[in-house]
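sorry for the late reply, my laptop died twice this morning and i had to redo everyting from scratch. anyway the thing you sent over, i finally got around to it. pasting the sequence first so we're on the same page, its 524 residues, then the predicted structure underneath. double check i copied it right bc i was rushing
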Amino acid sequence: MTGPEVRKQPCQQNRTEYAGIDLLPNQRKPFIDFIESLGLKQPKNFIPGNEATIYFLENDTPNILPGRLRFRMYGLPPFTNTFIIDSNQEGVFEMKIKPASRNRVEIKHRQTATAQMVDEFIKDPRRFQDLFYSSYSPTIQALPEDKIDPQLFEALLLNLTDTGSIFPSLIIYRNRQHWVLDENDPDTFRVTLDDEIKYFGYPYKTPQNTIFTPPTYLGDDSYLRAEIKVDNHKNQIELVDTIREWLTENGHIPPVRKKGFQVYFRHELGVPDRYALAKDYLTKEIPGREIEAKLTLESPDDRITIADLIKKGVENGDLPDYRLHQMLPHTKQTSPISYRYGIRDEKGNILGEAFIITMYSDGRIAGLKRKTNLIGQYGQHGNILDKEEVKESIRWPAWTQWAEEETIKEQAEILGVKKEQMFLGGVTKRDRIRVNIENKGNDRTYVISIEDNLTNDGRNFRQIEIEYGDRRGNHLSKIDGITIPQIVGEIEEIQKFLIDLITTRGGSLKPEPVSKFDWLTSPK
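ok and here's the structure:
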C-alpha cells in the first residue's frame, strides 16, 4: 500500500490493552453496529485485511519470551492450505515490555524489518547492529521508520543462555478490522475485531532457527475476538466502560489467557486440546462459568485408594450413564500451593475471599490469581455452585515479599478497599488426584477431585469436588436456561454415587458449600 495518506506507525507505543473478549460469529453485525453508534469509524489509513504474527521462544527458558518478541506481517494474501513466508515480506519486528509497576500498561518497541532480516537475527542475535541499523527503509509507507533502542537488544542478549537459542514457535493468522475515535490520532482509542483466526506452529521439542520452514497447521478458532486499545496518556474511562459492558453481556472472557500458546503447547506436547481446533475437541457450553459441587470428606482411605475405587465403580457400571474419559487421562495428580487472601472491614470483621495465588510444584511460576463471583447455588444442600471466575496471569517469577505487596496494592485498588483491609487467610498445600469421566449420552466431561488441603500447622481439610469440565465437539452457545439445570442434575447423579461409595467404606461425604478460605479462617 502506498500514498501520502497512509499513517506511519510509531516506533514506541505506550498502551493499555484490555483483555480480549470472544464473540460468536453471529455477533459480528451487532458488534459493528454498536461500535459505530458510538462514533468510532474504520480508518482509511491503516493496512487492511489479513495479517500474521510469529512469536519467538528461547530454548532453555521459554517463559521469558512468549508474546515479548514477535514479527507481524501485514497485507497478506487470503489463506490457502499452507503458510509460506516470502523472504522479502515486510513487517514490524516488535519487543513488548510490561513494566512491573504499571497494571495492564505495555510498551511496544517496534521497527520495520523484512522476513529475511528476522530470520538472520534469530540465527545469531549478536548481529542485531548489522541487521537492524543498516540503511534499509520500508517500502510500505504505513510502517515505522525509526529504530528500537539498541540497549533493548543488549538487555535481551543478557537474558539468553545461548546466542543462537531463539526459535519461532506459534503463528497466529487473522483478518483484522479497526475502529478509531480520531483518524488523525488513531492510537488514542482503537477497537479491533479479529476473524478467520488460524493457528500454526513450528517444532517445539526440536526447535529450528529459521522461519522459512513451512509451519504445521493447527486449526481454526471458532470465535471472533474483540479488543480495546487505549493510549495510556488519554482519559477515555467512560467509553471503555461502555464497550466493556456490551462485550461482557454479549460475549465471554476466554477460558485461558494466551489461547494461541495454549493451543500450541498442547499440540507440541501431546496434550489433548481443550480450547479449539482438533476434530474431536472439547468446548465449554457456558464460557466463563464454573459449576461444581463441594463435599466434605471423612474417610479411612487415602485419596489414591478413593480414586481407584471411583474408577472401578465406573468401569463396573455402578454409575451407568458414565464412562472413564476417552480423550483425557483417567487420573492426574497435582500438588499446588495456594495463598488465599481476604478482606476485612474497618472493624476487623471478615468480608470474604479477595484473591488466590497458586504456585505449582516447580516453584518458579506464581500461577494465577482469581476473583470469584457467585451466580447461583443449587441442590438440596446448596453445595452445587455456579461461579464466574476471573483469572489473570501473574507476572512475578517468584512470590517474593515485594511481589506480594504490589499484588495486594493492585487488588485493593480494583476492589475499592484500603490495602490495610487485605490479609492472608492462610496457605495450603493442595494434594489432589483427579478422575476424569464423561457422560455416554451427551459427551460432557466431569472432573472428580479428591483433595487433602494441608496447612503448615498440620491441619487437613479433606474435600471432594465434582466440576463440569467441557463437552466433546462444537457446542458454542449462549446460556439458554436449559444447559445449567442439565449439568446440575448430572452432578447430583455423580454426587449420589460418591456418597454411597464412601459410606460403604466406613467414611462420610457431606454435601456442604464450605470453601477452603472459609475453613482456613473459621475458629480452630
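Residues 146 and 169 are 27 Å apart (CA to CA).
thats about all i looked at so far, will dig more tmrw
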